[in-house]
């Protein structure tokens, strides 16, 4: 599965909890989301560092040209995170099925620190069919 094809599939199958997803589909989507979030952060940094020094009298301008745009970008970034929550959950369930694990293992992510490491290891496992044969060469 290609880079852009994986991201399109991510949004097309946003509530598909039944099929399987290869490793490439999962990691390309993780890369896409990391790039998008990095762009949000870069935009915030541009807003912070391009504003000049404001004196006490210009505090209102500081809020209009710096604080409000940063809050707007943070709001959009939070909405993007909310929009990606269920599709990412379904992609992780499909990835677990592809590595021949129970979808209920997704609940291991709720364990602080250790759970996210376990989920990361499960997402890295190769694809297997129901008979245990490995499809990754």
TrEMBL record:
Q: Name one Pfam family in it.
A: DUF805
* UniProt key word Signal: no
Q: Kindly indicate whether the keyword Acetylation belongs to this entry.
A: no
Known InterPro entries for this protein? DUF805
Q: Name one GO cellular component term.
A: plasma membrane
Q: Which domain of life is it from?
A: Bacteria
Q: What residue ranges are annotated as transmembrane?
A: 25-49, 61-92, 104-123
Sorted alphabetically, which keywords does the UniProt record give?
A: Membrane, Transmembrane, Transmembrane helix
Q: What is this protein called?
A: DUF805 domain-containing protein
User: What is this organism's lineage?
Assistant: Bacteria, Bacillati, Bacillota, Bacilli, Bacillales
């Amino acid at each position: 599965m290609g880079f852009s094809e994986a991201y399109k599939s991510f949004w097309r199958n946003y509530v598909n909890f039944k099929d399987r997803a290869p490793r490439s589909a999962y990691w390309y989507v993780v890369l896409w989301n990391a790039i998008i979030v990095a762009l949000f952060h870069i935009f915030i940094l541009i807003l912070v560092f391009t504003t000049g020094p404001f004196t006490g009298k210009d505090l209102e301008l500081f809020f209009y040209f710096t604080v409000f745009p940063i809050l707007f970008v943070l709001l959009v970034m939070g909405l993007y995170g909310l929009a990606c929550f269920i599709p990412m959950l379904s992609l992780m369930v499909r990835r677990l099925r592809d590595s021949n694990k129970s979808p209920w293992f997704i609940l291991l992510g709720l364990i602080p620190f250790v759970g996210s490491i376990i989920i990361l290891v499960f997402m890295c496992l190769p694809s297997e069919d129901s008979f245990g044969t490995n499809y990754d060469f």
